Amino acid sequence: MQFLDPALDNYCERNSGKEAEYLRELTEETHAKVQMPQMISGHLQGRFLSLLSHLVRPRIIVEIGTFTGYSALCLAEGLAEGGMLHTIDIDPWLPEMVDRYVEKAGMQDRIVMHHAPALEVLPDLPGPFDLVFIDADKQNYGNYLKAVVDRMRPGGLIIADNVLWSGKVLEPEAEQSEQTKALREYARLVNEDPRLAPVLVPLRDGLLVARRVG
User: Is 10 helix (H, G, I), strand (E, B) or coil?
Assistant: First the structure.
């Protein structure tokens, strides 16, 4: 996922606002205790997600893939008064850690965790959705898109993470993994959907941001 020179990446982080203490602690604990800690959104991406959330002022945010909760905490910063973020994950070991940091951030009244497969949870969530963040199993990205796109309000955002897949999306088709193929297919679905206006942002491992236009 390291496309920029590390020194330049650090420069970007230093000039992207201050990281809250609870987010810094969450990053440290994730790297110390959790497998594949590079999956955490991190400071720069977290500030970008917070910015988008503040611009949208969502009442309902849906996050598919919680991990240790960093992105949820950042997205929840921009919620409108009385808004709610629903984050969904099937990992059995991380909810306690996520709960601790939600409490540290004082966001217990703004973040609800769901421990079940996302495609089972999504139909029961209140809508319309104002912002959706997809960061889970790559093979289901297309299914997640189909499950949320009709429930987006006009002007709402669907954000998908890891769409550059460490550059693997440019590999010859015969060498692509199933995950790579799924991410390429997701990008195709978004770009061919007349209801969506997408921009692929080469931030970290790639964020495909799509605005619901109709």
Answer: helix
Cis ω for the linkage preceding 128 (within 30 of 0): yes
Q: Which pLDDT does position 1 carry in this prediction?
A: 62
Sequential DSSP letters for 115-176: -S-HHHHGGGS-S-EEEEEE-S-GGGHHHHHHHHGGGEEEEEEEEEE-SSGGGGGGS-GGG-
Residue 186 CA to residue 132 CA, distance in Å, equals: 15
Q: Read off φ and ψ for residue 190, nearest 5 degrees.
A: -65, -45
Q: Is the pLDDT of residue 26 over 90?
A: yes
Contact 58, 110 (CB under 8 A): no
pTM, two decimal places:
0.95
Can you give the C-alpha Rg of the chain in angstroms?
Answer: 16
Confidence of residue 92 (pLDDT cuts 50, 70, 90): confident
DSSP string, 29-87: HHHHHSSSGGGS-HHHHHHHHHHHHHHH--SEEEEE--TTSHHHHHHHTTPPTT-EEEE
**pLDDT confidence of residue 214:** 75
Q: CA nearest 69: which of 46, 48, 51, 92?
A: 46
Quick check: 65 and 136 in contact, CB under 8 A? Answer: yes
Task: Please calculate the CA angle 87-93-99 and round it to the nearest 5 degrees.
Answer: 50
The dihedral sign for the CA sequence 127, 130, 132, 133? negative
How confident is the model at residue 166, as a pLDDT?
93
